[in-house]
Amino acid sequence: MSETEQDETNQEQGNAPENAESTESNDANAQNADSDFEPLTDTYEELRHTDDSAELSAAARKPLPPKSDQAAFSRSTALLEAVAGNQHTPLEDRIFLARTMPFPNILVKLSEDENDEVRKAVASNTADKNWLVGRLTKDKVSEVREAALRNPQTSWKMRLEGAQNPETTPDTLDFLSKLGVEFEPDAPAILSSMVRRAVALNPNCGQPTLARLVQDSSTDVQHAAAGRLGQ
Fold it and tell me: Model pTM greater than 0.70?
């Protein structure tokens, strides 16, 4: 072996312990990182079943990470679903989530909440998908149903059914009678007039609403209202 080759061999052997120490250090750091990371499913189940209301409240109010951090953002919204579905989460926090969250997985959980006020808050949330708010138009509680009927995400089919329902209150019928006129003036003319006509034919429709509908721009609505007023 030449003198140069011998020097290179000695140098490599001299560096070996240093390289080994570096590798061991990296492995140790990786193990520490793994031990600090709690799997999503474990954290989800903990939040889903804990009765620690303070922990749940803190999780409900914790600001979301920026959307640019996609992994952290997705993890946080998934954990909020667990918080939303836990009845030990304080009522005010469940209502807060129902009013402010735009995420379907969280709103679906809250739409099944045993508390009427939580479901009502979901029904009023304009971030709802139309199928979800449509489902809430069939809720067992009238206040929830009517909050859903006033939500702009509600489909015209659900609005028409609400206008036909004799249990819908005069106030909500009055709201529906203004669709395509005062509210949502760019709404499809045929669909909005069908809803207003159904309001006019609804036995629960108030006299002031009928008096206004007699002057409606649609002749079908006018005739329906006039018939109810005996004109």
Answer: yes
